[in-house]
């Protein structure tokens, strides 16, 4: 028997198995569920005058629903799942594309739609002159910023946008803003705080993490707050919306799998 050959083969098999195990260990994922409260103050002031909220018999507008979103986060991939009364929207970032798959159930029938857009960092925000990537609902945009935006901050030329697209209807389009961001010091690099400020030092958006936890060596916010401002016609500024997020469940997760039919539809 060729004993040296067998020993070399065994050593190579061990090396390969260790490399594969190491690769699997590096591909870690965290799954979480968050509740997001968003207060659109212009909307609330308007409906307060009517003493009711749309589709409700006089419900006080100050009492708002909490939007639940489920997220799975990897080092350069993520999934955000949004469920509504008669529909479900799932978005994946693959590292090169954002894929959105929508399922709508109406009158007992189901319809689906799938869209895919190229993205180098998974940032769903876009300047006013560029097409939006798979138009995120506001709660999903907030979750993306809090839990999935790590890859963006690894690019020096990145740009962070306010969560609500209302800024595109204001003079901020022309003046722009600067960014001051502090991120957690780990390999994921989620933001601890964000300040978007105009050239005359007016706040456009403020975001702050108040509590956080560590899972698999990554820091995740457990509770966070945000305020977005818009200019008024009198050259002043006012609060557009406030937001509050709270994580209700978090732990080690599995890599999100995109169904084969969704992949086929995205590649058409």
| Whole-number mean pLDDT | 84
Oligomer: single chain
Number of helical regions: 5
Strand content: 35-45%
Strand order of the largest sheet: 6-5-4-3-2-1-11-10-9-8-7
Q: Which overall shape is indicated by the principal axes computed on the Cα atoms?
A: globular
Secondary structure category = alpha+beta
* Count of structural domains: 1
Termini Cα gap: 55 Å
Q: Order of SSEs, N→C?
A: HEHEEEEEHHEEEEEH
User: How much helicity do the residues have?
Assistant: 10-25%
The biggest beta sheet is recorded as: 11 strands, antiparallel
Rg (C-alpha, Å): 22 Å
- The strand count comes to 11
Précis, in short:
The protein has 268 residues and is an alpha+beta fold. The protein contains five helices and eleven strands. An eleven-stranded antiparallel beta sheet has the order 6-5-4-3-2-1-11-10-9-8-7, with helices on both faces.
């Amino acid at each position: 028997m060729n004993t040296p050959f067998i020993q070399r083969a065994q050593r190579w098999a061990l090396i390969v198995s260790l490399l594969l195990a190491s690769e699997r260990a590096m591909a870690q994922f965290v799954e979480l569920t968050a509740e997001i409260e968003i207060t659109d103050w212009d909307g609330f002031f308007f409906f307060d005058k009517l003493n009711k909220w749309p589709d409700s018999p006089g419900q006080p507008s100050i009492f708002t629903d909490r939007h639940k979103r489920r997220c799975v986060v990897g080092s350069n991939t993520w999934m955000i799942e949004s469920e509504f009364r008669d529909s479900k929207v799932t978005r994946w970032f693959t590292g090169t594309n954002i894929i959105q798959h929508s399922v709508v159930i109406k009158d007992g029938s189901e319809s689906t739609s799938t869209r895919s857009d190229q993205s180098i960092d998974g940032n769903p925000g876009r300047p006013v002159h560029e097409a939006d990537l798979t138009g995120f609902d506001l709660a999903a945009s907030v979750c993306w910023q809090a839990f999935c935006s790590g890859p963006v901050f690894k690019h020096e030329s990145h740009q962070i946008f306010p969560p609500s697209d209302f800024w595109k209807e204001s003079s901020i389009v022309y003046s722009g803003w600067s960014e001051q961001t502090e991120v957690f010091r780990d390999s994921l690099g989620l933001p601890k705080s964000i300040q978007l400020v105009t050239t005359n030092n007016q706040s456009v958006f403020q975001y702050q993490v108040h509590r956080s936890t560590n899972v698999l060596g990554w820091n995740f916010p457990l509770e966070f707050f945000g305020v977005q401002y818009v200019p008024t016609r009198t050259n002043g500024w006012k609060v557009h919306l406030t937001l509050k997020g709270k994580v209700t469940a978090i732990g080690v997760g599995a890599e999100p799998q995109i169904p084969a039919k969704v992949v086929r539809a995205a590649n058409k």
